[in-house]
Amino acid sequence: MITTGDDRLAEQLRLLRFHGVNRDAWSRYGKSETPPYETVTPGWKYNLTDLQAALCIHQLAKLDGFIERRTRLAELYHEQLALIGSVRPLGCAEGTTRHAWHLFIVTVETDRLNCDRDRFMGLLAERGIGTGLHFTAVHLHRHYRGRYGYRPGDLPKTEWASERVVSLPLFPGMKDSDVMRVCEAISALAQEVRR
């Protein structure tokens, strides 16, 4: 979902969301309209289905509660991970007034753990903890390597981060005890791999 107060940008986005077509289905098939339409710019199929829109309208009313719950869980993660020390949450961007906590991303301190990020994720999976990998170094993906000639070593700081970031479970339905379970698993794993 995109919101904007810029009318020109809103119109451009409306075009892009549905194949660049200048009239939506309601306009094309309403009582007083005729079906022909024009594609005025290349676009995509990004419009919501009616079912998605109906769900979104009702979920939107719950958004503040979702964010409050995610914030509480993120605070608990920060408290517990500070006690472990080998997994570090990413910091918040300066000037952030309200964080949505869409994801809870940490950096695995691979040198301290004697364990790379992928093994860390696998060991958590063995303990029943699901993790996610949401950010990998884009310049090393096949398309960017082929089109722009990027190679490993071109962006060393990006690659360093890419090899260490992982997303821990975070969703509004989590209980505090779920976060504690994740942190206990990380703590046990840290003790195991340091040996």
Which descriptors apply to this entry?
Aspartate Aminotransferase, domain 1, 2 domains, 195 residues, 9 helices
Structure notes:
By secondary structure, this protein is mostly helical. The protein has two domains: 7-60, no CATH class; 63-194, Aspartate Aminotransferase, domain 1. Helices cover 49% and strands 6% of the residues. The chain is built from nine helices and three strands, in the order ααααββααααβα. It has helices spanning 7-17, 25-29, 50-60, 63-84, 110-113, 117-126, 142-148, 156-162, 176-194, and strands at 87-89, 104-108, 165-168. It has a three-stranded antiparallel beta sheet. α4 (63-84) packs parallel to α9. The chain is globular, with a radius of gyration of 22 Å. The N and C termini lie far apart (47 Å).
Helices, strands, pairings?
Layout: H1 7-17, H2 25-29, H3 50-60, H4 63-84, E1 87-89, E2 104-108, H5 110-113, H6 117-126, H7 142-148, H8 156-162, E3 165-168, H9 176-194
Antiparallel strand pairs: 1-2, 2-3
Instruction: Determine the mean pLDDT.
Output: 89
Helical segment tally? Answer: 9
How does the helix and strand content classify structurally?
mainly alpha
Strand order of the largest sheet: 1-2-3
CATH superfamily of the largest domain: Aspartate Aminotransferase, domain 1
Strand content: 5-15%
Specify the CATH class of the largest domain.
Alpha Beta
Describe the global form: globular
Largest sheet entry: 3 strands, antiparallel
State the helical fraction.
40-55%
Low-confidence stretches: none
Computed Rg: 22 Å
How are helices and strands ordered from N to C?
HHHHEEHHHHEH
Number of strands: 3
Count of spatially separate domains: 2
Termini separation: 47 Å
Please name the CATH architecture of the largest domain: Alpha-Beta Complex
